[in-house]
Design brief:
Elements lengths: L1 E5 L8 E5 L9 E10 L2 H7 L10 E2 L3 E8 L10 E5 L14 E5 L3 E3 L6 H4 L3 H14 L7 E5 L4 H12 L3 E6 L5 H6 L4 E4 L4 H8 L4 E6 L6 H6 L1 E9 L14 H4 L5 E4 L9 H12 L7 E6 L3 H10 L5 E5 L1
Parallel strand pairs: 9-10, 9-12, 10-11, 12-13, 13-14, 15-16
Antiparallel strand pairs: 1-2, 1-4, 3-5, 3-7, 3-16, 5-6, 6-8
Helix pairs in contact: 3-4
Length: about 325
């Protein structure tokens, strides 16, 4: 099979396509013929040498979408459509950047859909993070307000879609006025240009602050996001678009506004119910939901795809088809 291999951290050119043996699945594992995979900041962090616990050489990719090629334990049937994500994919064992990937049964979810593979490949990790952040990280309730910090990221855009399905009032940020229309098209109620003082803009709209907030940029903007949130509101830290995720000399009383709740979310396949995945795909097929995709690349365009992700030029998900 062909796979995209990273021998050691480096620039985009460090990603090389080469021939590897097709993995042989053992009991408890599934061999998947990959049809498409989405790109994630986690893979960028690995390529830049910012991720811990990664061994090299490594086939990157924390997610994959395709069909079952072989499943010795019988948990899935050959030809069944599946997604796989997390659980060490692309970090402690080879992931989705290949024509085949072999993953634990626990990381696999079956679905049925006639959507294009380029669309399906965008969904798993993006939907898992958005759904989990709303349901687990924030316990978001119908009709509440939400601030999405990092709104034109794939997770930010997907979260806006799911939040509107909950009749939430959505405030979403972008650093570029040129990207505002993409958020408005999703149904975002208030697009905020991130000038560093988003809290001030939020409180001009909602004087008491938002009920919930999703922090996707990272620790540089987290204090301002906390200031934009009402007393007893919830801020969920779930992303690091800035590549910064630690707070130096963290002093909770001085850092977190009184009464604001700070949580986090970093789930895996077990946190995305199969019914949620299936319902979302059916909503997309019916035209009742959209999959925010910036661009679909060919397998031999992985260098261009990673360069676009690193440059931050995108609005939504980047996908590679095999």
């Amino acid at each position: 099979m062909q796979a995209i291999v990273l021998d050691a951290p480096g620039p985009v050119e460090a990603l090389t396509i080469r021939e590897l043996p097709i993995p042989t699945p053992q009991n408890g594992w599934v061999l998947i013929r990959v049809k498409a995979f989405g790109l994630n900041r986690s893979e960028l962090h690995t390529r830049l040498g910012l991720a811990d616990g990664v061994t090299f050489p490594r086939v990157l990719g924390i997610e994959a979408t395709g069909v079952v090629a072989e499943c010795p334990g019988g948990e899935f049937s050959a030809g069944q459509q599946v997604v796989a994500m997390m659980g060490g994919m692309g970090r402690t064992f080879d992931g989705g950047y290949g024509e085949y990937t072999c993953v634990p049964v626990s990381q696999v979810i079956a679905f049925q859909s006639e959507l294009d593979w380029g669309v399906l490949g965008a969904v798993p990790e993006m939907l898992q993070t958005s759904h989990g952040s709303l349901s687990v990280g924030m316990n978001a309730q119908r009709g509440q307000s939400i601030l999405i910090r990092g709104g034109t990221s794939s997770v930010g855009m997907c979260t806006a879609i799911l939040a509107k399905q909950r009749d939430m009032t959505v405030l979403s940020t972008t650093r570029s006025a040129g990207k505002a229309a993409a958020l408005t098209a999703l149904g975002v109620d208030h697009v905020l240009i991130d000038d560093g003082d988003v809290a001030g803009q939020v409180r001009e709209i909602l004087s008491g602050g938002v009920d919930t907030a999703l922090e996707l940029v990272g620790t540089p903007t987290l204090p301002d996001t906390l200031q934009a949130t009402r007393v007893h509101g919830v801020v969920c830290f779930a992303g690091m678009l800035s590549n910064e995720w630690t707070v130096k000399d963290f002093y909770p009383i001085g850092y977190i506004p009184h009464g604001v709740r700070l949580t986090s979310y970093a789930g895996d396949a077990g946190d995305l119910p199969a019914g949620v995945l299936q319902d979302f795909l059916e909503a997309v097929a019916a035209g009742d939901a959209t999959v925010p995709i910036d661009h679909v690349y060919g397998f031999d365009q992985i260098v261009q795809a990673h360069a676009a992700m690193e440059a931050g030029r995108t609005k939504g998900k980047l996908v590679v088809t095999t």
